[in-house]
Amino acid sequence: MDKILYDLMDWAGIEELVYSEASDPCRLLGPHVTKDGLLIQAFIPTAVNISVKLKATGKSYPMELADEAGFFAVLIPRKTVAEYVLVVTYDNGVQEELNDPYAYGPVISEKEQKQFEAGVYYNVYEKMGAHPWKIGEVSGVLFAVWAPCAMRVSVVGDFNLWDGRRHQMEKLGDSGIFELFIPGMEIGSIYKYEVKCPNGDPLLKADPYGNYCELRPNTASVVWDISRYQWNDKEWMEQRAKTDTKEKPMSIYEVHLGSWMRKTAETDEEGNTVLGSEFYNYREIAEKLAAYVKEMGYTHVEIMPVMEHPLDASWGYQVTGYYAPTSRYGTPDDFMYFMDYMHGQGIGVLLDWVPAHFPRDMHGLACFDGTCVYEHKDPKQGSHPHWGTLIYNYGRPQVSNFLIGNALFWADKYHADGIRMDAVASMLYLDYGKNPGEWIPNIYGGHENLEAVEFLKHLNHVFKKRKDGAILIAEESTAWPQITGDVKDGALGFDYKWNMGWMNDFTGYMHYDPFFRCHHYGELTFSLLYAYSEDFILVFSHDEVVHGKGSMVGKMPGETMEDKFANLRAAYGFMLGHPGKKLLFMGQDFGQVAEWNENESLQWNLLEYPIHQQMKEYVKSLNKLYAEYPALAAMDYHPEGFEWINSTAAEDNIVVFLRKTKKKEETLLFVCNFAPVVHQKFKVGVPFAGKYKEIFCSDSAEFGGSGLINGRAKSSKKDECDAREDSITIQLAPLGIHIFTCMPGQEKAKAAVKTTKKTAVKAADGKTAVKEAAPAAETKKKTGSRRSKS
Fold first, then answer.
1. In this structure, what are the phi and psi dihedrals at residue 708, rounded to the nearest 5 degrees?
2. What's the pTM?
3. 214: which residues sit within 8 A by CB, 6+ positions away?
4. How many Cβ atoms from other residues are within 10 Å of residue 283's Cβ?
5. N or C terminus: fewer CB in 10 A for the chain?
6. Is 475 annotated as catalytic?
């Protein structure tokens, strides 16, 4: 080797590179201007010859072998950096011409590094991870990962024979971020990070910010370009930004994409099941699901977690790839199509998201660089005993940045209409699911997780600043105050909270035999004492139909399926009238009998039976009613939108209430009978004099009921009832939900002046009354037999 070149060699640094222990390979590799010329060094194990070819002139300069491990160097007589390529001959005789990864400066700026360290680099997903990138005229992939305690990080994959010595990454200052631009790398390339721990042990890790992953059980990340999809939902997005969901109907259909509908799995020539062949692609699901959702009248779908997860049985709640839609159902482009298609059909999409904990899988976030990076070091703080998972260290800015950036990512890149956060209660309490001695109090000696509280407020504040109409929903099961509301008023900042208390109380009430319900009447009415303390969503979610709890129809009492379905109709009808938006898990709208199983399709074959088809039509009718009548949604979160008429009829298991808007004529009257008893003449107090017309009855024959409906409008009388001056008398069906519109008295007076038409109407009514006499007698027989059973 030439003496000048020899003297320029940093032999200690070369040894560090050869043993793959360098956190700053750019200090040696790539072009460096020296007083003696342009020094270019390269480290490519398995190379036997390397030449540097200048792009401008095409002149080549052979490199000298400085270390037999594959370290080469050349000194070119010039004083400035020139663009060049490396012409590499490998030990198998293959020759390759490539751009030097170490010829490019850092892409992530110092400003961005400081933002990341402070936890405010909100568009972190634009550069962290793996992104198709172009520097000058050179295309490739930019890699960036956070591993603050790593001795060295490399990008490895098929493209470099998984050799961690090849593409060692540059650590950017004290940020803990490692970065490398690899020219010529293509979309679809499989990769991982090889992380050398402080103790020297290597770990293979999937990319925490990766946009695509291999199909399980494989765990590598996949390079993908998520910027190339052409969206068609501009009109939807613009309209969403203008819409206040609080005043609109929101009927949410909760879905697990892998079991909503499944294919018959394919087998290969050897008889083995083809992995993933049992699933529909995102594009296929989109068209099938949208058609069903539109038919049923739901406004939104809520998708159980689609973020990449290794275990099907976790339902997506143990995430390893937070920035990647699961490859079970297709590519990121396919999932964008899913979102786009839903919006094109007028359907909002809410994504389930899990910022509360993460699994211990060694390819994931756990012990990422050999130390506790994302989790707490102390198991009393960092371990979740309920799920065997790890808890995020929310007090570490880079960790909160990872999660905040992720929520923004799904709203930004995938146009999510909302994020539903799972297990928020487990975030808020340090002692959640733990026994005394298994947790560490906060600085004030309390059990509140102050870092998590600050994280949630920070996230909600940043998310709302976007003002694009996307919403944030909390699944929080305790009485923690002010989950919803404005952060500046001391609230956590969520738009909505799942009403878990109502779900537990009401399903408990419905589970009782109607004969005993009178002793549990408070469970029916209690929720209205706190209904306006938060902005609630009423839910019958997946949590209610697993782990031995049975399906919704399975929870209902009754000796026959007809009795069970009558109870279920009553439950769903009451849910419609109760203040709050609505959510129903898939399969429960047609009365699936079996518990939900993530490995099986829904029991769609049940729709061949009339009782299940009628249940489906019933829920469809409820959704139609919900969309049609403003009183059911416009004042969901204002006490003035609800009024009790009778909440003390415990012995009869009956409640009567009003749903209202600011317009008197839009008032709706609900009469709910939770006993299998017929009341032929049931007197109900009404809010004002006028006509009351039944617009809906859960006991209608079309839904499988006995048909005991109130066919004609009822004129109120000055007859005191329920502490009201006016009342009406109605037929009350067994287990019946009756809904009436309320027409104020002045409308009746106006109608009375039409004298000629009035006579004709009376004559027509007389004919109608004759026609209705026979069905009424028949109904008495049906209801009489039902009463005798009770």
1. -85, 85
2. 0.92
3. 190, 220, 221, 222, 327
4. 16
5. N
6. yes
- Residue 422 is among the residues annotated as catalytic for this protein: yes
Choosing from 417, 422, 495, 544, the catalytic residue is: 422
Q: Are 165 and 20 in contact (CB under 8 A)?
A: yes
> Cα–Cα distance between 519 and 509 in angstroms, integer?
10
| Spatial distance between the Cα atoms of 479 and 536, rounded to a whole number of angstroms | 13
Q: Across residues 495-509, what is the average pLDDT?
A: 97
Peptide bond before 217: cis, by omega within 30 degrees of 0?
A: yes
For residue 552, pLDDT beyond 50: yes
**Residues 498 and 541 sit within 8 Å (Cβ to Cβ):** yes
Measured from the Cβ of residue 200, the count of other Cβ atoms closer than 10 Å reads 11
Give the pLDDT of residue 746: 56
**How many whole angstroms separate alpha carbon 137 and alpha carbon 182?**
13
- CA-to-CA distance for 223 and 564, rounded, in angstroms? 52
* pLDDT value for 771: 36
Domains of the chain plus CATH, in order, are 3-98 (2.60.40.10), 110-223 (2.60.40.10), 249-267+274-498 (3.20.20.80), 501-744 (2.60.40.1180)
> What is the rounded CA–CA span in Å between residue 516 and residue 526?
17
Give the model confidence (pLDDT) of 447-496 as tens digits.
Answer: 999 999 999 999 999 999 999 999 999 999 999 999 999 999 999 999 99
* pLDDT for position 2: 83
The catalytic position among 333, 475, 699, 726 is: 475
Q: Which pLDDT value is given to residue 786?
A: 30
* Class of residue 186 by CB neighbours under 10 A (exposed 0-12, middle 13-18, buried 19+): exposed
